[in-house]
Amino acid sequence: MKKLTFIGSGKIAESMILGLISSKYLKENICICSPDEQSRTAISNQYSLKNFKNNTHGMHIGDVIILAVKPNIIPVVCAEIKDIENLSNKIIISVAAGVTIKKICEYIEKKNITVVRAMPNTPVLINQGVTGLYAQKINTNQKEFITELFNKISKTFWLSHEEELNSIIATASSAPAYFFLMMECMQKSAQKMGLDPEYIKELIVQTAKGSAMLAEHFHDKSFQVLKHHVVSKGGTTEAALNVFTQYNFQKIIEKSMKSAANKAKEIEKVYN
């Protein structure tokens, strides 16, 4: 089992770490590095992990270095990575939006290294995530390991082109927030209708869960077909959907997803 070193102690790092631990990845093979002592020690104490304030200490012992930091921090940590011994034998995984593999290699000042870009989403915390993956130089054994690693916490999708990661961000990485917004709005509306606040959240969560499981069960049927199975002509569901159509719900979703993808492209321009 390879040793994993997480650089960064933010939400996505913690989500991945907890997901891996719950899928029986050995705690002894995971360490976390961050200058942020509060968040670093909180995670390391909660999950009994090795932790280092100095990134290079963890980088030396990790077979896989996971850059779980914001795009503006990538140049800083790459400057630390470039002096690590046996770097050609390690795998570097970046979960930062917008910073290309080419740029990461430039920051590290080495070309013959294995760099993988990964775009997971927060449900990796409970092993129900989605991860888009892309690499340019990767051998079969490395690819199998990366696939197995992320399969522990998510469904994985290897992409043919790096720019597709921007669409993955819009469709999956950012998407849990879209669903939570929808659920939040439903919760507020249900309260205004007079439903008991004690069970509204459970009601909405179970409905969302059941709908997702139904879509997965009938994977050969389109979302449109599944939607029409709920609708009766002249009924309550049709009345609700007519309002969505009236206010162009499709256009709102389309604009929101494009905005997420465009933001990723803006980040690319800044750091590439």
From TrEMBL:
Residues where NADPH binds: 55
Entries under InterPro entries matching the protein: 6-PGluconate_DH-like_C_sf, NAD(P)-bd_dom_sf, P5C_Rdtase_cat_N, P5CR_dimer, Pyrroline-COOH_reductase
Enzyme class: oxidoreductase
Keyword terms of this UniProt record: Amino-acid biosynthesis, NADP, Oxidoreductase, Proline biosynthesis
Coiled-coil spans in chain: none
Keyword Translocase (UniProt): no
GO MF: pyrroline-5-carboxylate reductase activity
Residue positions binding NADP(+): 68-71
Domain Pyrroline-5-carboxylate reductase dimerisation intervals: 162-266
All residue ranges annotated as the Pyrroline-5-carboxylate reductase catalytic N-terminal domain in the record: 3-98
UniProt-listed Enzyme Commission number(s): 1.5.1.2
Gene Ontology BP annotations: L-proline biosynthetic process
Metabolic or biological pathway: Amino-acid biosynthesis; L-proline biosynthesis; L-proline from L-glutamate 5-semialdehyde: step 1/1
Role according to the record: Oxidoreductase that catalyzes the last step in proline biosynthesis, which corresponds to the reduction of pyrroline-5-carboxylate (P5C) to L-proline using NAD(P)H. Proline is synthesized from either glutamate or ornithine; both are converted to P5C, and then to proline via pyrroline-5-carboxylate reductases (PYCRs). PYCR3 is exclusively linked to the biosynthesis of proline from ornithine.
Subunit structure: Homodecamer; composed of 5 homodimers.
Family: Belongs to the pyrroline-5-carboxylate reductase family.
PANTHER family attached to this UniProt entry: PYRROLINE-5-CARBOXYLATE REDUCTASE, PYRROLINE-5-CARBOXYLATE REDUCTASE 3
Protein name per UniProt: Pyrroline-5-carboxylate reductase 3
